Amino acid sequence: MNRNLLSDAVRYGLMAGLVGAVTAPAAFAQDAGQEQEASTLDRIEVTGSRIKRADIEGALPVTVISREDIEISGKVSVAELLQNSTFNSFGSTVPTSGSSAQSFSELSLRGLGGGRTLILIDGRRAPTSPQSGIGQDLNSIPLAAVERVEILTDGASAIYGADAMGGVVNIITRKDFDGAEISYGKGLSERGGDTEQGSAMFGASGERGSLLAGVSFSKRGITFINELPWVPPGASSYSNNYYDFALDANGNRAPTRNRGAVPGGCTNPGFYLNAAGTTCLYDFNRVAADSASIDQSGAFARGNYQINDDWNVYFNSSVTRVESFGRFAPTPEFIFITAASPNNTRGVDTLVKHRFAALGPRDNYDDTTVFDFNAGFNWQATDKIAVDFGARYNESSFNSNGRNYVHIPTATQLFESGAYDIFDPEGNDPDVLNEIRATTSRDGFYKQQEVYAQGTFDLFEMGGGTSVLALGTEYREDKYEDIYDAQSAAGNIGGSSGNSSFGSRELTSFYGEWIFPITTQFEIDLAARYDDYSDFGDSTSPKVSFRYQPLDNLTLRASYGEGFRAPPLTIINQLDAFSADSVVDRPTAIQLGVAPTTSIQINGLRVATPELQPEESSQWTAGVVWDATDWLNLSLDYYNIEIENQIRFYSAQTVINRENAGQFLPSHLFTTRDPGTDALIQVRAGYGNEGVINTDGFDFAARTQFDFGAWGDLKNMLQVSYINSYEVASNYTTTEYIGTSDYPEWRASLVNTWTKGDWAFSWTVNAMAGTEEYFTDLFETNYGYSCQETVDAGYAFKCDYNAYVTHDLQVTYTAPWNGRITLGALNVTNKDPRLDQNYTPYYNNLIYNAYGRQVYLRYTQNF
């Protein structure tokens, strides 16, 4: 992957020294002996700056994934492409079966979370996902429409506003294309998740304008846990067992003691008795899926027309649909029956801890449609003043339906009457099952309407060129809804939870950026932005950056900036949602007649945080770029990020512990207890502001290029991201995460490409530092057990924490008829993910995948 944009500049043949001075690292000059002056080059826009300029990059580190890099990667989606980046430090949310955001994929630069990573499309904020209400869904962007991706690994709130703390990803769509292109590919994976992709595109341009349009689709199949050879059968006591109960402070029946399997009720498929023959267990891995399927289709078009010498009109539009299917294990639930019920053989009132396998697995169908339209004008008012203004509308609408859930009031009646037979669940009458069966629904949208204007002014000449000022303003309206069906919101649906959220806000912004090219060797860039939100207040974000070029082939650069993250609408506006939380609480346990350390289920609420304040960040970077020789380019950048007033979640247990210790809690989070017994009646959990995140590290890149004459050309690109520290502090504790489970100290990639004639071969190595398993880390840190003791006890697999390395191979043949045939394999050695018993599929899908070897074939025809 290149670290910066070449655009037209490379074709003009910049001197190698200049390219090395302004890229990090740049591609190499065509001919070091050629002379060019910057004034002859077209001005281009680079991520991280509002000012178009003749050189390729200023003082900020920008990594570019070119279209060639995209083809070499073998990825079928924008999400998979970006999540493979070394900057995706600890992984990101991916489509997961059973998740409330099943088809959602994010990017978490520097490990700071998708809500602190800003995704742009052609320099403007991508639509926010209604599934999460936080961040943008990368699955809604067709990969076929992408020309390149620019990753700014520096905070950029001064340029783009909120949420750019960890960095900015600018997805540049295709525009300069003449002719037609069709492409089709298919991939087979070792353990499910097969892929298919296709696209058709045409483009035309003339003296006064251009037009490009296309359609595309991509698919990634579902994977099932039972296809993973390392995962044993599940063993859940949510199967078919009798339980004693006690009444809690709310009068609810809380389970206290397992009284054994329902007689004869543990013989249906998936059910089995434990070794002692006393407890019924259920294999929840029997039918459950691991990753959800993703089926994306879309159309896109963009164009521009030169009205006259001074005016140009442009538009960019797209519509994308993402469908997803996920399968979860059948619904588990506690159902009360009296002593008189035909289903009760105990003779006392009882709870049945039951798995509704006879209803079938819980199947979730998600459907998201994204519309995005942007249109505007460029006006060259004078030789020194240029104006850009326009309007944009986007909407991401979402619908989810869940089948085979349980309507608890109905199930309770049928259990009590005996109409539902717990002794042979699979033998129940289909009409009885249909009475219990419930279908859930959830609908939402996130709409953004925006108008914007920017003026760019060439002010005066300085020693290094023209001082340029950009001034702009934006006005945006956001509207958000996420509506659950009434029965789910009321807590009547087993196996489902959550409640609705909705809200709106208006945003008015003003920004400016001013470049001072003091000399040809030294440049200063100043930027500031003011954002005024209608629902929580305002924020001002400054930034200053420097670039110093003491030698033609050496560049030093540095920046300092401040940023913020706006409180998400979903958190500050959600309705109270019931949650059956499992906690440890001594007075409640005593009231229920169980041991004080027993984990018990209590009534909880997830509540909104209307007084939530924005997070604030400060970050600085320093780096060096060296064009060492005509075949070697090196760069090293240091980053340091501090986030204050972090938005964090306070769980029910945290609320209990903090209240018992007399420690800080947001005012809206507290417990309600019975005056007589001190047992819990309710716990209010939710979000608040507290604490600081500090992280720092280094990014290293080395690029080589060799010309072997008749033997072809060889290019190599090495990228390494090293995280020195990732420290999270609350008011009472400070935790360093680097080196702990699933927080690797470094990630690296090496891309080697050899081309000879019509053939191109690539070999990509992806690697990350090894980390210990969750329980090894937990038992060693908290209880003093060694790794080997944890392995011997059966909680961990091994004590060998070597680096995790995979290899990808690809070969492409360019045919005489303008066709390209590509054959490749991802994870060619079929390496398993790092196994960890803390996760249901025995691996962390934020960092690893379980597809195994993925072989693909792709054909592209140009006309």
Summarize the SSE layout with pairings.
Blueprint: H1 7-11, H2 16-22, E1 62-65, H3 67-73, H4 78-83, E2 117-121, E3 124-125, E4 146-152, H5 157-160, E5 167-173, E6 179-189, E7 195-205, E8 209-220, E9 240-247, E10 253-261, E11 271-273, E12 280-282, E13 293-306, E14 311-328, E15 332-337, E16 350-355, E17 362-380, E18 385-407, H6 408-417, H7 430-436, E19 437-462, E20 465-484, H8 486-489, E21 493-494, E22 501-516, E23 522-533, E24 537-551, E25 554-565, H9 569-573, E26 577-583, H10 586-592, E27 600-607, E28 615-626, E29 632-644, E30 647-650, H11 652-661, E31 671-673, E32 680-689, E33 692-707, E34 713-729, E35 734-736, E36 746-756, E37 759-768, H12 774-783, H13 787-792, E38 804-814, E39 819-826, E40 854-862
Parallel strand pairs: 2-5, 27-32
Antiparallel strand pairs: 1-4, 2-3, 4-5, 6-7, 6-40, 7-8, 8-13, 9-10, 9-16, 11-12, 13-14, 14-17, 15-16, 17-18, 18-19, 18-21, 19-20, 20-22, 22-23, 23-24, 24-25, 25-28, 26-27, 28-29, 29-33, 30-32, 31-32, 33-34, 34-35, 34-36, 36-37, 37-38, 38-39, 39-40
Describe the model:
With 863 residues, this protein is mainly beta. 10% of the residues lie in helices and 48% in strands. It has a 22-stranded antiparallel β-barrel. A 5-stranded mixed beta sheet has the order 1-4-5-2-3. Strands 26, 27, 30, 31 and 32 form a 5-stranded mixed beta sheet that branches. The chain starts with 6 loop residues before the first helix and ends with a strand. The model is unreliable at 1-41 (pLDDT under 50).
